[in-house]
Amino acid sequence: GLVEVQEEVKEEGVGHVAMRNLFSLETSSMETITVEKKSRKRHIRESADRLELSKKVSTRAEFRKKQNSDNLTHPPEFIVRPRGQTVWEGKTVKLHCTVSGWPKPRIAWYKNNVVIDEKAHPDKYTAESNYNMHSLEIKSCDFLDTAQYRVSALNIKGESSSVATVVIKSMFFSSQIMYLHLFYEEVELEGVPVAPLDVRCHDANKDYVVVTWKQPAVEGSSSILGYFIDRCEVGHHHWAQCNDTPVKYARFPVTGLIEGRSYTFRVRAINRAGVSRPSRASDPVTAIDPHDRARHRAGPSAPFTGMIKFTEEDATVGVVPGEPTDLVVTEATKNYVVLAWSPPAQRGHEGVVYLVEKCVAGSECWQRANTGMPVKSPRFALFDLAEGKSYSFRVRCCNSAGMSEASSATGDITVGDMLDLPAAPGPAVATRNTDTSVVVSWGASKDVKHLVGYYINYTVAGSDVWTPANNKPVKGTRFVCHGLNTGESCVFRVKAVNAAGYSHSSLESEAVVVKAGIAIPGVPSGVHLMEAARDYMVLAWREPVVTGGADIRGYFVDYRTVKGGVGGQWHELNPKAVTCTSYKAENLKENLFYQFQVRAINMAGVSEASLPSAALECKEWTIAKPGAPHDLHVLEVRDSSLVLLWEPPTFDGRTPVNGFYVDIKQAVAGEDWKGVHEKATKLKYMKVNGLIAGRSYVFRVRAQNLAGVGKTSAVLGPVLALTMPGTHEIILDVDDDGVISMIFECSEMAEGSEFIWSKNYKTLTDTSRLTIVTEGGKSRAIFNAPSLEDLGIFSCEVTNTVGVSASYTLTEAGESLSHFATQMAMELLEKGRVRFWTQVEKFTTGCHVDYVFNDAIVENGEKYQMNFDKNSGIIEMFMDSLAVTDEGTFTFNLVDGKAKGSTSLVLIGEGKATPHLVKSTEHGIVLYSLITYHMEDLQVGWLHKEAKIAHSDRVQCGVTGEQLWLKVNEPTEKDKGKYTINICDGKDGVKRFCDLSGQGEEPTHTHTHTHTHREMYRNKLIEEGDRARVVGGLPDVVTIQEGKSLNLTGNVWGDPAPEVTWMKNDRELVSDERYALKFEHGKFASITIAAVTTTDSGKYALLVKNKYGTEAGEFTVSVYIPEEEKKKE
Question: pLDDT at position 491, please?
């Protein structure tokens, strides 16, 4: 039973004290009592003096202690104790501790009280000591390493030790795992709950306290049925169980405590598998009246000074106390009901006890609830109530003088849980964070009361074993789960918990791979002006150095006005992100100054803003030269090459941009810029060769127009010339059905990575030519109907990777699409016999050849003999002799499933001279002649219409091996006519002719070799009288003063009458108030611009088209301002 100790209260009156003191004076003349009144100020000063004196004495004692060397020594003391650990079998455990002491203590490690000899077992144990820090490493742990490890520290002043428990879990015998309970010498079976957490005491009173705790993260193999609460009096080691039946709530009122004594509490959880280990003990709490506790916290009273306080007789002795007030039910569960009330205002000094009464609803019979013990605290918990029934309660108080009246009764209270379980949290969302952690977020539970927090569990995808991610509940709705295995795919779920228990689990997250995640990108840099006009400015910037592990999706531009050097408020320019590193800021005010800043965005979020640009004035530029190219970036970085891409300047200058120059230098100090090429390129990309593996390079690009070369772009780099491990190239493949495709593989696919296919470095948008099929890390681009339209450079880039890209060039149809090892060739055999032949290097068994002469299929017979050797891939056609009627085009059409290819050869005239050859390329035409051998003093000259051809960017000539060639890029009508090649060795000479108008002037034995169909020659080389053409009326350059009116008329021809379109800077013009466009009588096309401005400068074109072809008449318009021209003069 409970022991109750009560002390007698003795009261003394004034007369009694006076008589006692008088008797003392008479019997002991040696004892003197001095009664002295002191002011509060003097009392405080004396207390301060005593405190100062105490400090001086303590300081002097410490100093004397240091002077004596014997006092410097002290026994070992553990500053940091080793901590117990639980790990999987095969892992390594390391125990750490920090020990102080002088002399320096000796350290020894024990396993189950047996000393560990690490030198005898170096493969198992490693012990280290550095200064005062000591460690024991246990390698390749197995189940036998489960033990109690003790570290002992010893010196001449004494010995100290500390214990840590190591538990090794077996992965192969998980159904039979047992954990050794070393402290209690008992075995804990698997499946029981984990120990509860954070046991605390609240609302302590004379005989009552409320104990709370947090539910464990792991319930075990079944749901938790309830909890047992144990108490232990401070100074004792016996734990007594407070409740006979498990309580479901994580809150329990403990009654029956002895006033003035201190207690600690612990909690155990129970499920169907058994009882958990006990929680950590709570902090001690004393059963004491809250008012007395407050007085104790105020600190000790002033020391005795010989003063005696006299009080009057207490008038409340022998008074019956009043009734308690404010009776309420503070807690109600199916296990217990807690009542609380306020003590009576009048109760005397001897103290009171309380009697609690209950009454079943609907009756008038009141029964005592605390018959076994009186209640000293104004709190009481009732446990013997029937669940589902309703009760009312009241309280009385009593002392030695009598019992009070009953308090006001509570309303009817139904015994049951007043606190509901929390609702399930919102769906869990998992995102990558690091190589060993994942960020989990979820929606908060709705309408939850007294939420304790959330527990997060995870499992490897495909498994049903859930592991807790946090040991203590978290309050927020976001948690970083650490300690995960890199590369594993994990699924997460969340459940909420309050005092009533656990909620249902949230919806599971999608599986996420544990690897370094993405972050918001770094800030862009180098915001600068590229073009300015009266009401707009074009800006450019450099992309962030740090992309955050994901591709940059776009940029946001902000602006503010600047007046008197003071910037205004920032405003957003573009609500929708722009994908390039330039932006046209419109609707600005002329002559005002603006500042701009840029923010980048990727799939993780928006970056911080860049540094603001300089204050830029919105004023129209009149510079003649073009601005700087922008948006430089590289693809296909290899050991010796890379592909550089850029965007043209937004400001062309007075005339359109007609080319670009690329500069390069090594990224080391002292290096000078060098041009990659001598002549300007019109393309917006260039493959840079000749790099040295392992070196870094920087690049820049300049644009030019008729006025000269403009500003340089921002420098790109440094770029390291190095082929990354695992790099793949695009492979051209033909399957057994003859389907042609290009294959690209990537071994570094990241989450969200995509294959982006391009042609000539422009993203493919037309799906009629190619079908893209992507499976995992492989993408296949399948040609739907291979033809000459598919010639070009095909490239593929993988997003969310470090520059994974490659390209494949389809040059000529016969070379790439049909896998011809050689092109059609002609051989003159004995007796005038002729052989036409070629070789195919890859084909299927179903491949066949059509032999065509002048668009008519020829059969095997007397004149033609054909052969296709499928073992060697050689295709042959023989003729006994050549006649005038054999002038024309010979073609081998190869059909291999869906793959098609052809190779052709044209014969014109007869003779025995060296053949003269013509080839069509993607940039124009090439004329060449084959010679037996070439000497250095051989003189070669090319003529067009009997006039010597001048070398230029468009027309070039040279010698390659045994081939003399002339290249004509972008041929026009002016390039038609007879071409002559003069070959002279100083003594003899020879001439060869080729008429590109289709009318030969002198008979020659000329065979023409091309990689295209005969129809391509008809379109490019033979004049068609009905094709749409621009026959005159347009100048090459128009220079006009600002404010004047411009009117131009072009004469066009074509049958049927052509369609007419006017273009400016490759954009179609529409007739409106500014541009008046007319087409009259099917022959005259005119354009009128009233009051031209400098914005009308640019490259214009009259485009005509009918069913036989298309042609463009181009001209340049340059608008100047007279005042500026005078200033220049």
Answer: 93
What's the average model confidence in pLDDT over 767-778? 85
- Cα gap 133→995, rounded to integer Å: 95
Closest CA to 286 of 338, 341, 231, 360: 231
Q: Which two tokens stand for residue 12?
A: 């003394």
Indicate the DSSP class of residue 949. P
Tokens of 1081: 């009588």
Count of other CB atoms within 10 angstroms of residue 777: 15
Burial class (CB in 10 A: 0-12, 13-18, 19+), 55: exposed
901: number of CA atoms within 13 Å, CB side? 33
Q: Which amino acid is at 179?
A: Y
| Number of CB atoms found within 10 A of residue 321's CB | 26
Q: Strand 501-502 and strand 512-513: pairing?
A: unpaired
Whole-angstrom Cα distance, residue 205 to residue 182?
36
Which of these ranges, 646-655, 740-749, 1003-1012, has the smallest mean pLDDT? 1003-1012
Highest-confidence range of 376-390, 655-669, 870-884, by mean pLDDT? 655-669
Contact assessment for residue 264 and residue 293, using Cβ atoms and an 8 Å cutoff: no
The closest of 846, 835, 907, 915 to 875, measured between CA atoms, is 835
Type of residue at 600? A
- Position 908 scores a pLDDT of 57
The beta-strand segments (E) located in 442-487 are 451-460, 467-468, 478-481
- C-beta neighbour count of 310 within 10 angstroms: 9
**DSSP-derived 3-state class of residue 290:** helix
Q: CB neighbours (10 Å) of residue 1125? A: 11
In 3D space, the residue among 85, 104, 105 whose CA is nearest the CA of residue 95 turns out to be 85
Does the predicted TM-score (pTM) go above 0.85? no
CA proximity to 597, closest of 535, 531, 524: 524
- The band of 15, judged by pLDDT with boundaries at 50, 70 and 90, is very low
Q: Which of 591, 581, 605, 601 is nearest to 527 (CA)?
A: 581
pLDDT reported for residue 125:
93
In this prediction, residue 1000 has a pLDDT band, given cuts at 50, 70 and 90, of very low
867/596 Cα distance (integer angstroms)? 72
Per-residue pLDDT at 42 exceeds 70: yes
Q: What is the 3-state secondary structure (H, E, C) of 706-764?
A: CCEEEEECCCEEEEECCCCCCCCCCEEEECCCCCEEEEEECCCCCCCCCEEEEECCEEC
pLDDT of residue 1022: 38
Amino acid identity of residue 1063, one-letter, is M
Mean pLDDT confidence for 612-618: 88
In 27-171, beta strands by DSSP E: 74-80, 85-88, 93-102, 106-111, 114-115, 125-130, 133-138, 147-155, 158-169
Tell me: pLDDT of 99 over 90. Answer: yes
The Cα–Cα gap between 627 and 650 comes to 7
Question: Is residue 445 a contact partner of residue 503, using CB atoms and an 8 Å limit?
Answer: yes
Tell me if 531 sits within 8 A of 627, measured CB to CB. Answer: yes
Distance CA 219, CA 69 (A): 57
SS3 902: strand
Number of H helices, E strands in the chain: 5, 86
Burial (CB count within 10 angstroms: exposed 0-12, middle 13-18, buried 19+), residue 805: buried
Q: How far apart are CA 770 and CA 783, in angstroms?
A: 5
- Spatial CA neighbour of 874 closest among 914, 841, 908: 841
Residue 915 has pLDDT above 80, yes or no: no
Residue type, 59: T
DSSP H or E segment with residue 52: helix 40-67
Residue type, 618: C
Average pLDDT of the chain, as a whole number: 79
Classify residue 375 by its DSSP letter: B
